[in-house]
Amino acid sequence: MQIIAKRTLRQFWERHPPAETPLRAWYALVGAADWSGPADVKTGFGGAVDFVAGNRIIFDISGNKYRLVVHVAYRYRRVLVKFVGTHGEYDKINAETV
Questions:
Q1: Chain segment 41-83, per-residue pLDDT in tens
Q2: Please, are residues 77 and 34 in contact by the beta-carbon 8 Å criterion?
Q3: Beta bridge partner(s), residue 49
Q4: How far apart are CA 36 and CA 26, in angstroms?
Q5: How far apart (Å, rounded) are the C-alpha atoms in residues 44 and 36?
Q6: In sequence order, what are the beta bridge partners of 4?
Q7: Would you state the torsion angle of the CA atoms of residues 15, 84, 61, 80, taken in this order, to the nearest 10 degrees?
């Protein structure tokens, strides 16, 4: 999958250094993936993902310390990072509209 907005991830881990290793691991896994639908995502990430409207996926990162919201265009094999934050920051947003 092509991941758009690695810069967003980098900016976050620069503010939260413990997030760097798990976000890099997520980036590597997703970059090597070839998802054709939500079932493929669920197979790779199990219970660490939730799906919301508009092809958005919420990933639990580092034991749920951080949350990552992405939009997936399965047809084009693209993943757009919409939000990355602490669990507390995530609680203040609407994952369907961020």
A1: 999 888 889 999 989 999 999 988 999 999 999 999 999 999 9
A2: yes
A3: 59
A4: 18
A5: 12
A6: 80
A7: -130
Does pTM top 0.90 for this prediction? yes
The count of C-alpha atoms lying within 13 angstroms of the C-alpha of 89, restricted to the half-sphere facing its C-beta, is: 12
**DSSP β-bridge partners for residue 80:** 4, 71
The pair of structure tokens assigned to 75 is 């047809």
Would you state the structure tokens that stand for residue 92, as one six-digit string? 């203040």
Q: 83 pairs with which residues across the strands? A: 69
C-alpha closest to that of 89 among 12, 2, 5, 1? 12
Q: Are 53 and 82 a contacting pair, CB within 8 Å?
A: no
